[in-house]
Specification:
This protein is of the alpha/beta class and about 325 residues long. It has helices spanning about 150-155, 155-170, 180-190, 215-225, 225-230, 245-265, and strands spanning about 20-30, 35-40, 45-55, 60-70, 75-85, 100-105, 110-115, 120-125, 125-130, 130-135, 140, 175, 190-195, 235-240, 270-275. The chain has a five-stranded parallel β-sheet, with helices on one face. It has a four-stranded antiparallel β-sheet with strand order 4-3-6-7, with no helix packed on it. Strands 1-2-5 form a three-stranded antiparallel β-sheet. α2 crosses α3 (about 180-190) and α4 (about 215-225) packs across α6. The radius of gyration is 21 Å and the shape is globular.
Length: about 325
């Protein structure tokens, strides 16, 4: 089908460098839409014409195609947000990890990228993927960066073998760092990801969050979350890990993370968020996340049975997974 797009939608990929210096591209998809955020430095007076097509990676069935011309009217750094809806793709899931090939042609140059479409939400304390309830069976400690050789941890073949092994154990979501090979494999194999920034936010201290909120927002978009945003396998973002939660420092961090969550949700509302993993207790974002080391800090391993008392793990006025 033909899709009507915004005037700048042609500016998607690095092949446009001959006419515009593209600094960063972030793609966010839902179950029926795609949004492209393009940060670029444009050359004055350049006129660009592009032809783009999205087809199924397996069946090559066309989802949409379009042509667009764009005119740079000034020479300055700028960010263009491009989005379109009304798409009817087959949806990505762990059972059926459907991907699409987006092809953009400009003159004799061609660029291709894999994308996927899905919807991840929560309602009444239950996770839903593509409108179906789903129980998350996770594994937090995964390669890379856990004692394996660097060459091995960067190997796409190793990542694929490892993800397939996790799936054989009926695990459907894992935590990984910023590694495109692992993200690509999770997209292709149908493994969900929860990921983001672990430890304190950049520019923060042990007792206080960053002072420059706008700089922190930019950092999350471009560095901490941006590399994950284009992958349909990523369903949960994490903004920090085990930050202070009591006293003055706790109040400062809770206020900062709540505001950050509200701003980032405007940027990408296709994922759920955990603001302070382990210690935030769901007060700032979507998910009630708690770290308990039973048998280590909490006497007997049998105290894990407390997790069955859901009322113990809720905030007033909220019902969270």
């Amino acid at each position: 089908m033909k899709t009507k797009l915004l005037g700048a939608f042609g500016l998607l990929f690095p092949l446009l460098l001959t006419a515009a210096n593209i600094q960063r591209i972030t793609t966010v998809t839902s179950d029926k839409s795609v949004k492209i955020e393009v940060a670029l430095s444009a050359e004055a007076g350049e006129r660009l014409l592009f032809d783009a097509t999205i087809v199924g990676s397996q069946n090559k069935e066309k989802l949409c195609s379009f042509s667009k011309e764009y005119l740079f009217t000034h020479k300055t750094d700028t960010t263009v947000v491009l989005e379109t809806g009304q798409l009817t793709p087959k949806l990505w899931s762990p059972v059926s990890p459907v991907l699409y090939d987006l092809t953009l042609k400009a003159g004799e140059q061609t660029f291709q990228k894999k994308i996927g479409f899905r919807k991840f939400e929560m309602h009444n304390g239950i996770f839903y993927l593509n409108d179906n309830p789903i129980y998350l069976r996770g594994n937090a400690i995964n390669p890379p960066e856990h004692g394996i050789p660097e060459q091995l941890e960067q190997s796409k073949e190793f990542a694929r073998d490892y993800v397939r092994y996790m799936k054989s154990l009926h695990i459907n979501i894992i935590r990984i760092p910023d590694n495109q090979n692992w993200m690509d494999v999770c997209d292709e194999e149908g493994m969900m990801i929860f990921a983001g920034r672990y430890g304190r936010p950049k520019h923060a201290t042990q007792t206080a969050p960053p002072k420059d909120f706008e700089l922190s927002l930019k950092t999350y978009k471009e560095i901490d979350l941006g590399p994950f945003a284009s992958h349909p396998s990523v369903v949960i973002y994490i903004l920090s890990n085990e930050m202070p939660y009591e006293g003055k420092a706790g109040d400062l961090y809770r206020d900062f993370l709540t505001r950050m969550y509200q701003e980032l949700k405007k940027w990408d509302n296709t994922r759920l968020y955990i603001c302070n993993a382990g210690y935030g207790l769901g007060k700032s974002a979507d998910i009630y996340d708690v770290h308990r080391y039973w048998g280590w800090y909490y006497n007997s391993f049998l105290t894990y049975l407390n997790m069955r008392d859901k009322d113990m793990w809720q905030n007033p006025g909220k019902v969270q997974p």
